[in-house]
Write a structure and sequence with these properties.
There is one protein chain. This protein has eleven helices and 13 strands. A hairpin with a 3-residue loop joins strand 9 (about 310-320) and strand 10. The strands form three sheets. A five-stranded antiparallel sheet has the order 6-5-4-7-13. Strands 8-12-9-10-11 form a five-stranded antiparallel sheet. About 30% of the residues are buried. The protein has about 375 residues and is an alpha+beta fold.
């Protein structure tokens, strides 16, 4: 989200959730996406066949020097297969410093530089155990630290040979295809788009989205969810909504921006023309709208209150957190939309606000701060 101050975040990926563990109501890309035709990748059966070809090739080695060479290519294959990394990234890894065998974490990017942390990828436990077994081989001892430092051309040639052995088309017999295949595999497993972005090391979620093909409605649902989730993590404002800009009305100094949330709620924000241009806001763009809780006014009235406030959301009081001076009142507008207001405890008592009461949550257009991805 574009704000006045931007801070770089560490690219650290923990264990990946699967479709089975995702919360109810969360949109799952695995259920609806297809892979664009220009994205070359291997399906599950092809990945298994390629793995079997590498395993058999490794096990056929008789001479010690051949076993060592093939063993090195084997561990490179496993890292490429399960990390989604580029060949150049794997070939520069220091197996002593960049791989934590006990936890199965591979660190790409080396030591911390400034405020940018290395990208970390968690390996499946079975793969981590196999790699640990390989590196315990006495033949690897003299090469520790540089086991993975092999010639890229040689590695690509061995990939091509193994791919031909298991009947893969020529264009699919290279390490780059494994990166694409891992991305598709993770997405089909229900791993969120932003997590796959982190694992692959993409600088923008738009690059990761190239692996997906959706209808216009699917795109709006998914992007709205992830931008909304990201926005809630990166801002102190309790009230953050995602929506598509439906109308922009520009004046001499200020502009009025109207957006529609995925649940159909209309919000209005007034910002400067300079901000409108800087954020490149126009009709059809997805934006986030944030409103601080102290700026939300609560009104107990069965009918729509007469007020100059442009933004009005009607719901029921979900919960009240009373404090010594102030109270936090959360209003459920619908099953997915909540609004939080921070008012005095005296106001709660004077209005007689109780859980379950119907209530209006209102805020001025000038109180709505817009952001874009």
């Amino acid at each position: 989200m574009v704000t006045a101050h931007t801070k770089k975040a560490a690219r650290v990926a923990g264990p990946c959730p699967t479709a089975a563990t995702m919360a109810p109501g969360r949109p799952c890309p695995a259920k609806i996406f297809s892979v664009p035709g220009d994205i070359k990748h291997l399906e599950t059966g092809q990945l298994d066949a390629l793995t079997a070809a590498f395993t058999a090739w490794k096990d056929r080695a008789k001479r010690p020097d051949v076993r060592l060479s093939r063993g090195r290519v084997w561990v490179i294959f496993l890292l490429l297969r399960h990390c989604g990394a580029k060949l150049g990234e794997v070939l520069t890894l220091d197996d002593r410093a960049d791989i934590e065998w006990r936890t199965g974490v591979v660190r790409f990017g080396g030591a911390k530089e400034g405020d940018v942390l290395p990208r970390e990828v968690k390996l499946p436990q079975a793969v981590a155990d196999e790699l640990a077994r390989c590196f315990d081989d006495p033949a690897f001892l003299s090469l520790r630290g540089s086991v993975l430092h092999m010639d890229g051309g040689y590695v690509r040639r061995k990939f091509y040979e193994r791919g031909q052995e298991c009947g893969l088309p020529k264009e699919l017999c290279n390490p780059r295809i494994l990166r694409h295949s891992r991305a598709v595999e993770l997405l089909r497993g229900g791993v969120p788009l932003t997590v796959v972005q982190t694992i692959l090391g993409h600088g923008s979620v738009n690059l990761t989205a190239h692996y997906l093909s959706f209808t216009r409605e699917d795109i709006q649902t998914l992007v709205s969810y992830y931008i909304h989730k990201e926005a809630r993590m990166k801002t102190s404002a309790r009230n953050t909504f995602t929506g598509q800009v439906s109308r922009v009305r520009t004046g001499t100094i200020l502009s009025e921006v109207t957006l529609i949330t995925p649940r159909g709620h209309e919000l209005v924000s007034v910002i400067t023309n300079e901000s409108l241009e800087k954020l490149e806001i126009r009709e059809g763009v997805l934006v986030t709208a944030s409103i601080k809780a102290p700026l939300v006014i609560l009104v107990k009235d069965d009918d729509a209150p007469v007020s100059s406030m442009r933004n009005r959301l009607y719901g029921k009081v979900l919960r009240i957190n009373m404090g010594a001076i102030a109270a936090e009142v959360v209003v459920a507008v619908d099953e997915e939309t909540e609004v939080c207001a921070l008012i005095t405890d005296e106001s709660v008592n004077r209005l007689g606000i109780a859980v379950g009461d119907p209530i209006w949550a209102m805020f001025k257009a000038f109180s709505v701060v817009l952001g874009v991805d």
